[in-house]
Amino acid sequence: MFNLTYEYKLRPTPAQAAIFEDWLEQCRRVYNYALAERKHWFESRSCPVNACSIRSEFIIGAETKRPTYASQCKNLTAARASISALGAVAVHVLQQTLRRLEKAFVSMWEQKHGFPRFKKAGTMRSFVFPQLGVDPVQNGKVKLPKIGLVKLHQSRPIPDGATIKQVRIVKRASGWYVMLTLQWDVSVPSVMPHGEGIGIDVGLTNFIAISNGLLVKRQKFFAEAERKLKLLQQRVSRKKLGSNNWKKAQKKVSQLHEDIANCRSYWHWKLSHQLCKDVGMIFVEDLNLVGLSRAILGKHCLDASWGQFFAILEQTCFKHGVYFQKVSAHKTSQICPGCGVETGKKELSERTHTCSSCNYTTDRDIAAAQVVLIRGLAAVGHTVKMLSEGKFVGIPVKEESSYL
Asked: What pTM, to 2 d.p., does this model score?
């Protein structure tokens, strides 16, 4: 199976927008109720069996099983029969909300994420229709269960042969959007290493440094808008909480955040398409992005958004038929790409790489990108040599005999 997601701007009527708002609120309440049920069960099992707790504990019978997605879906069916507000919402939408909670707990157990938190009013931003009718998008409209036809700005046509598997309705500061998940019953072969390769090193002074000597300066999207954002947030703090003026001021803050994110995403897409021209392989560092975001320069790392750039670059490589792979980022700035000797740790102010063994001198970030390229070529089964002009050429490890 091959999946793609197409996003379009919705143009709902005021009545349809009110239905969207109500459904988001019902999804939020279902999410919070199911989370409270699970949290109470866990807290009831935290009390010692041989002593009384100093603080109060929830007492739930020992025969009561842990709440799961299946058991909560069963309880949801009974709740929809007695609560009219839940009955007005499509049952599959509420079930997807419970599945979303289940995924949050799985991420907590398997990926060491934090305990799921309750959602405040207005923080639930999307809901999903997992099942649709035949040809739900026709003549610039999408047909949603229990809502009907909703106009959308179809900026690009849906490809032939694609099946719309699910629809996600998203609320943003600029309006409502629909995300269509398209599926093709085909198997796409993986891209194999071929052609010339480049290594990419990311940083804060230069957003990326490429092994061929190109440096791209970092665009400070958040830093440039930080002053305006501060003024808008001050206006929010001076308004009465929950008033209409407070909501208007809060919307301006949300719109500025969305503009920053859109500008950053557009720049990443444009840069990734330029990198994929005339190359066959791209290698990047496998960084600990969570650790970097919590360091002293965390705000600048989040503004650079390397994780988003790597995800976009991987998708662009797939579209262009370019091989993409992440390699180890261990000591990329401490190894000479010319002779492979470890030169030692460099200070951040030291921007030039100079090797005392082979006298190879270049920009520090470019040298790290060249080390990334060497590791990438070694990972795909190539050895590397550097010619006099500093260009890296991949050579097969084992050459086939011409007599066979």
From this structure: 0.84
Give one DSSP letter per residue of 195-211, joined into a string. Answer: S-EEEEEE-SSEEEEET
Cα gap 314→41, rounded to integer Å: 42
**How many C-beta atoms surround the C-beta of residue 140 within 10 A?**
12
Rg (alpha carbons) of the chain, rounded to whole number: 27
**Going along 250-350, which residue ranges are E strands?**
281-286, 323-328
Instruction: Give yes or no for residue 189 having a pLDDT over 90.
Output: no
Q: Say if CB 184 and CB 196 are below 8 A apart.
A: no
Q: Contact, 275 vs 282, CB < 8 A? A: yes
- Over the stretch 20-68, which tens digit does the pLDDT of each residue have? 999 999 999 999 999 999 998 888 877 666 776 666 667 787 788 899 9
- Rounded distance between C-alpha atoms, residue 205 and residue 126, angstroms: 36
| Helix, strand, coil % over all residues of the chain, rounded to 5 | 40, 20, 40
Across the range 211-216, mean pLDDT stands at 90
Q: How far is CA 88 from CA 145, 283, 323, 353, in A?
A: 11, 51, 48, 66
The structure tokens listed for 203 are: 């940083």
* Other Cβ atoms closer than 10 A to 331: 13
The confidence score (pLDDT) of residue 344 equals: 80
Choice among 183-187, 268-272, 310-314 with the minimum mean pLDDT: 183-187
Structure tokens given for 291: 């650790």
How many degrees, rounded to 5, is the angle at CA 134 between CA 128 and CA 137? Answer: 65
CA 96 – CA 181 distance, rounded (Å): 15
**In the predicted model, what is the mean pLDDT of the chain?**
87
Task: State the Cα–Cα distance between residues 312 and 267, nearest whole angstrom.
Answer: 11
Torsion-angle region of 112 (φ positive above 0: left; ψ -120 to 50: alpha; else: beta): left
User: Which helix (H) or strand (E) element contains residue 42?
Assistant: helix 14-44
- The answer to whether 170 and 126 have CB atoms below 8 angstroms apart is yes
**pLDDT digits 0-9 by tens, 262-284:** 999 999 999 999 999 989 999 99
